Amino acid sequence: MSRVLVLRHGHVHNPDGILYGRLPEFRLSETGQAMAQAVADHLVASGEHVGRVVASPLLRAQQTAAPIAAAFSLDIATEDRVIEADNIFAGERTPRPMDFLKPRNLWRIRNPRTPSWGEPYVEQAARMRAAIIDAAAANPDSTTVIVSHQLPIWVARCSAEGRSYVHDPRSRECALASLTAFDVDGDAIAFAGYATPAGHIEVPR
């Protein structure tokens, strides 16, 4: 059985409140950089034997992975399958609840089960599952850290726990720079815990 830790990236520099989705230029803020370092320090202090570091191609994920890779003298492997979920709101200001009542947005959110505003949950779950299984197979004798994004991580956990993908986004247990652990045995994935090693770092409002 192999351990895979899936890490959400740290806080992003986003003064205009844009829903950045897969937009490539969004980087970590100073707070996000501190979060990434806190995770690296936590992994070293806890004695975790990290043998591989994998990250989404997006800049914020690569930057979050960097101090962990440095701490364990590893390179970062880029994995397209753990990228952020596609979202048609990307590039716009993050919608407020009242914005969904606008006619064009009512059509966009017509199907919360798919969802109609972006990549279907089942597709996210399938690509995340495949990436986690492949990561475990590539590094069976030590821990792999994968840096990904909130929704794909949450969907991967829902899949592993056999729970519904339909949810209130506010209920996701997937804070910035949090670790969601999975144990992988062949093609079987089990949720193995959740930790917030950067939870002590205050997020700017």
Automatic annotation (TrEMBL):
Database matches in PANTHER family: BROAD-SPECIFICITY PHOSPHATASE YOR283W-RELATED, PHOSPHOGLYCERATE MUTASE
Organism of this sequence: Demequina mangrovi
Xref: InterPro entries: His_Pase_superF_clade-1 (IPR013078), His_PPase_superfam (IPR029033), PGM_Phosphatase (IPR050275)
Domain of life: Bacteria
GO molecular function, one term: phosphatase activity
Signal peptide positions (record): none
GO cellular component, one term: cytoplasm
A Pfam family it matches: His_Phos_1
Official protein name in the record: Broad specificity phosphatase PhoE
